[in-house]
Amino acid sequence: MGKVLYSAMDEKNQSVEGFIEALNNRDAIEKLKSQGLNQIKLHGDASLFDQERDIITWLDKKTQSKIARKHLQIQKTKLTFGSYLSDLLQSSFFPIALGGGVTYWGYMEHSYIWASIGTITAFAPLFFGLWNYRLARNFDNLLKSYAYGEFDKALELAYTLKEESKMADLVAYADFVIAVNKAKEGELDEAIKILQSYSSDFETKPGLFQSRLATLYFAAGQYESFCYHHKQAYLESQQPVMLLDWLLAEVMVGDHKVIEQYIDQIAIEELPQYGVPYIDFVKGYALYKEGKLSEAKSYLESAQEGFLEYQENPAVWAILALSCVVYALVHYDLGEVEEAKAQINEGVEQIIVAHGDKKLLEELRKRFAPQFGSV
């Protein structure tokens, strides 16, 4: 069971946000509909979340809704100290006010023990909150460094998170980044060993091990295994997210002809909202490979608009950059050279050089090398 973030409309046509405990996203949708909600949008994958959100269960509905709205905002905005501090002060108002009152009373009564207790009560939430901000900032920087191909910096941040974080999911992700780096460096066996050390965690998350394993094979340049393990992830989980990941792998470096057979099987309402643009991207990329450029252009334009909603989130930078370069290739092949150039800025170029597959990079060099020699 996991807790997934959702937004919806209630029977009075009022917007509601919160978390729902469910086995997977299909289960989440059914539970939310049984509560009379409609226009339901999920913003995560229930089958992948762990115990980190268990504390939410103990909070009242109003507080849960407030936290949910903040999580929705975080998905589309930059992490800034000012906004984090403001939220921290709001969420910690009661202990800060209580501690301040006890401190004042202690000093007035010349009871320095109570004054000290009050001071500790007031400042403890701030101390732990600022420490968590440091972890969040390091995680954000890790995502940015990894996206831009600054792997040495990403590796350093991963080891820092492992040492300082007590959150199991953060530590596991840090180890995953370390494993991906080893796969890139030709140490695939060592990378797989790191992944296998989390085998007990994967038991409750069908398909996740195969999905992570697929990423290691991609990093190692073994594209056939990359596609194979993404397919296995879907077969194990039967989840739409895993199906979409498999189809993305096939259209990138495998058999793009399987897209037509499976793409319409994806239950869109069960996808996290940030996953919805992937459908149009996969369709557009497949049509590009079929030489149907005008149709491809329409789908890719729609996908890019969807990805751009999350452009402040470094977790989507790689797929956003990929959508930009495929869209650029379509423009170029349609004779729209200036439009093609406009899609590839320095940031997009840097990300694609770091994460693009060999064939895609060859296509880019073939078309853009005269204008973009470093691509």
Provide a descriptive summary of the structure in words.
The chain is mostly helical. It has four domains: 1-74, no CATH class; 77-136, no CATH class; 148-259, Serine Threonine Protein Phosphatase 5, Tetratricopeptide repeat, CATH 1.25.40; 272-375, Serine Threonine Protein Phosphatase 5, Tetratricopeptide repeat (Alpha Horseshoe), CATH 1.25.40.10. The protein has 19 helices and three strands. A three-stranded antiparallel sheet has the order 2-1-3. A hairpin with a 5-residue loop joins β1 and β2. α7 runs antiparallel to α8 (188-196) and α7 (168-184) runs parallel beside α10 (208-219). The chain is globular, with a radius of gyration of 23 Å. The model is unreliable at 371-375 (pLDDT under 50).
Distance from N terminus to C terminus (CA atoms, Å) equals 44 Å
Computed Rg = 23 Å
| CATH architecture title of the largest domain | Alpha Horseshoe
Structural class: mainly alpha
Total of domains: 4
**Average pLDDT metric:** 83
The CATH topology of the largest domain, please?
Serine Threonine Protein Phosphatase 5, Tetratricopeptide repeat
Secondary structure layout:
Layout: E1 2-9, E2 15-22, H1 25-34, E3 38-42, H2 61-74, H3 81-91, H4 93-108, H5 112-147, H6 151-164, H7 168-184, H8 188-196, H9 199-202, H10 208-219, H11 223-237, H12 240-253, H13 258-262, H14 276-289, H15 293-308, H16 317-333, H17 337-343, H18 346-355, H19 358-368
Antiparallel strand pairs: 1-2, 1-3
